[in-house]
């Protein structure tokens, strides 16, 4: 069994459940989700009748913010925004979650603040202000242009001219999100103080946002153009450049090490990094190599990266097998994988794959070792919602309209029932509710055999029952084809075989042993009999054999 040092109770966690607070549950009828709404639904996650069986939640930002990027533009790291409630509400949430043995991980946004943060207000007030060097300022070129050609993630230049001081400030995202200067030791200390505030309160860990941007080229050199960029195919304007100098600078891992060193002082805490590997910057190495550096160069005892490749893998047994096997084989003992197949920035599972295929991918995720990350609503089969022009909220879509980059569709309100507004709120929600909510919601699926919810409940229960599903030794199984993905997990007690049919054909699979337990993604519990099992189209089967 793999031992994750210092993560004493984290080793027993079935997986994360990401909650986007604005969209989870509205307790006060203003159309926006809040902390008290999350408290109301904790029994759904764990402890209540028909609960999902979740052991850990990750909360997207709830800090005080002007909401230019819905909380990723922070005005005060030490307080809760009034739309979500109060600091006392968060403390109550933490208490109630821990009472149910649910861990709470919160977002840490260290690369940038809001332009309304007191730090930036001071920095902007004068070139000689003591906070000036807390952000990144540069003089214009002789012709008045920005200091270099760096692009914002959200479109356009990454530099905004400040009329008062006559300098440009850097913002890797929105102009209302100025980048902090991480080469300044005072900034790094301030961020550790923020972390200590929440750790002392009792939070169990951090998901660290946009870490790749913390370290930049010290010479601020222009990025080269991306020779592979085709605007007719790739709608993201930031991909027009190979982002060689605006991120992933040489000090990145030393900065992250400072954060993890602090986390190590606290018992049973974790820190998870958000980082999407860069396929265009060849000096960074393969995708797996880039992931591995967050274990090797930082601190695998308390830190790990999300693996996002499941969100971008093309359909097919061969494609998913190559992705999973290559990553699993690259991991060293003690490295805990965290597979993320959906989140608040990417299209939902069903909208990417279709319902039958998405169900199979869900089974794949929940039978892999490590920490699966479940995006709220995926467990009931929520899909992207169509957003009319007048309903757009996301700053990304507003910055570069018509390119399909907006993230509103996957952030729609949680579907609790078939009542008005899907039981999310008594008021018109901040984003529209999906039309599928009448048939696809928690209340209905709790009473429906073989529903999406029952699939997740069953697989999470099996992960609790069989430790081999959480941290068994992975290897490819026998009989892999371009239609079947077969793998096995093994520890000292059990062996699990997972057989996934990625095709629309019915396939007979020959078993090489007798098994004690079986589960089908389509049929539920099954009794493994005979030497052959028959898989329907897009069916997954889990088989368990005791080794004791």
List keywords for this structure.
TIM Barrel; Immunoglobulin-like; 548 residues; Oligo-1,6-glucosidase, domain 2; 8-stranded parallel sheet; 6-stranded antiparallel sheet; 14 helices
Description:
The chain has 548 residues and is an alpha/beta fold. Strands 12-11-10-9-5-2-1-13 form an 8-stranded parallel β-sheet, covered by helices on one side. A 6-stranded antiparallel β-sheet has the order 14-15-16-21-18-19. Strands 6-8-7 form a 3-stranded antiparallel β-sheet, with no helix packed on it. It is globular. The N terminus is likely disordered. A hairpin with a 7-residue loop joins strand 14 and strand 15. Helix 5 packs parallel to helix 6. It folds into 3 domains: 380 residues, Alpha-Beta Barrel (TIM Barrel), CATH 3.20.20.80; 53 residues, Oligo-1,6-glucosidase, Domain 2 (Oligo-1,6-glucosidase, domain 2, Alpha-Beta Complex), CATH 3.90.400; 73 residues, Golgi alpha-mannosidase II (Immunoglobulin-like). It contains 14 helices and 21 strands. It starts with 15 loop residues before the first strand and ends with a strand.
